[in-house]
Amino acid sequence: MAAFDTTRPAYGAAPVAGQFKGFVAKLVAQVVAWNDARVTRNALSSLTDRELDDIGLVRGDIDDVANGR
Predict the structure, then answer these.
(1) Residues 66/37, Cβ–Cβ less than 8 Å
(2) Which one-letter DSSP state was computed for residue 55?
(3) pLDDT per residue over 15-66, tens digit each?
(4) Short-list 41, 60, 36, CA closest to 49
(5) Do 57 and 65 meet the contact criterion of CB atoms below 8 Å apart?
(6) Is residue 35 part of a domain?
(7) What domain range includes position 41?
(8) Does 55 fall in a domain?
(9) Within a domain: residue 36?
């Protein structure tokens, strides 16, 4: 009599599922990073030149700061 083990996923299904989860996780991380940069850019852009000078920045530094450079 033959017996089948039905508790394991089909051969090759686990790596594909793991790759998909990894792809989705990277995509979500990129969207979160983009949104953080956007919020930072908007907040710094709303400051006056004097306020930027108080924190040691000039208007040209905003993109670098927002992108984490």
Answers:
(1) yes
(2) T
(3) 777 888 899 999 999 999 999 999 999 999 999 999 999 999 999 999 999 9
(4) 60
(5) yes
(6) yes
(7) 31-69
(8) yes
(9) yes
